[in-house]
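Re-run with default settings, no changes from the original entry. Doing this only to confirm the output is reproducible before filing.
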Amino acid sequence: MTAALFVLFGAATSQALSPDADPSPWVKAEAAFTPAPQLDLSETTIAATRATGRSVIAVSTAYNSLAAQTDSTPHITATGTRTRPGVVALSRDLLRVFPYGTRVTIQDLSGKYNFGNRVFVVEDTMHQRKTNQIDVWMPTYREAINYGRRQVRITALR
């Protein structure tokens, strides 16, 4: 159907260039198209600005670069990059859902901690005994302790 309409438009366009062209191909082409129904874009626009992708609810904690909390290389992530703000570590089960390099947003379900529109990158992993958990890297021990333990929604960005 699309090819036929394209040919019809091609013929109509070439005829439209002459002053004595027959307008009937235009009428046929217009009759072949039905206008799309009007959509309420108020909710669509809001949804388009939010992160889209796979989403999981998990337990969130925080860590910083101390040898007591990590392995013998506390400033190096599992992917070989240096720890920095925006780096997160995932439990191994969540790495199957959000592999290394995935950009994610985190929403605190209690509403006490506001990440805003901050984007995090999955670059580290947690001990194998941890499941359904995300660790957010913090620059200081005090910030990590103050963050505590909370439920969050992790959403992958597309």
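Confidence is low (pLDDT under 50) at residues 1-18, 26-49. The first strand starts at residue 55 and ends at 63.
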